[in-house]
Amino acid sequence: MSGKGKNKVRIPKKKQSLGVILRNNWQLYVLVLPAILYFIFFHYLPLYGIQIAFKDYKAVLGIQGSEWVGLKHFKAFFNAYYFRRLLTNTFLLNVYYLLWSFPVPLILAILLNQIRGERKKRFIQTSIYVPYFISTVVLAGMLYIFLSPTSGILNFARAALGLKAIDFMSNAGAFRSIYIISGIWQSAGYGTILYIATLAGIDLSLYEAAEIDGASIWQKIRYIDLPSLVPTAMMVFILDCGKMLSSDTNKALVMQTPGNIPTSDIIGVYVYNVGLGSGQFSYTAAIGLFVNIINFILIITVNKLSQKTTDVGLF
Q1: H or E segment at 67?
Q2: In CATH, what number is assigned to the domain containing residue 116?
Q3: Tens digits of per-residue pLDDT, 188-215?
Q4: Helix %, strand %, coil % for the chain, to 5?
Q5: Sign of CA dihedral 99, 105, 108, 110
Q6: Is residue 78 part of a domain?
Q7: Which of 118, 147, 161, 285 could form a disulfide with 168 if both were Cys (CB 3.0 to 4.6 A apart)?
């Protein structure tokens, strides 16, 4: 045998200097620069202020001049009279919200994907997207009007059935249901965007082959749509689990009334009242750090479980 070609000489590629790379691709770096600056100034630089959770922060002394107190504020929160109620209310509210709200965008996306008329599809999509752009304060005002014990449409219906009027917004037992149902109505449509984009990327030949084999609509959903949506759905689920102790404070705050405090008193509302109302910045910083640590542990745990069960993970 000839020995030609056995010992090929590999010519190493010439490495480009950093200056050359920047000069050749400066348009791309300029495009990315605003996002980089945003994360630096609004996400990384503020981390410097975390240390006030371990100090008795006083504005006149500044962060460096304030006295170091260690875990004092964490212990104060754990021993607080309302600690158990705050933790329970926040956790239950988010667990119930996740269980009820998570499947809705998925189901809506699958149903929208089955609509063939473009005009009809666009009209329905626009209709379900609109509630997302309603502000939290306006949404709360709508809830107070619709659920009013004297002029609310729901109590009018109860009166027509011979039932007594109920002040739903002052009912502690109704707070979580109102919060969850209104949240689903407001955000479910907007949440379909990722799923619709995933369905749009499915190869049409799969549907054509399924039709040739005589597959029904439900069989195409089961064997084509759902398997394609699993990776996206799992990533959304992992991210949602990372917000288990981070409720929508603004919404809970404007919905809170003296009657529903036993269930509406969550960590976010407590931090708002104590931090801004009483000026206990170190104490509320400690609470915020505690919440973020728990959320971080949850997202890491759920991500690991997802990787083991579905081979899908964020990292």
Answers
A1: strand 67-68
A2: 1.10.3720.10
A3: 999 999 999 999 888 889 888 988 888 8
A4: 70, 0, 25
A5: negative
A6: yes
A7: 147
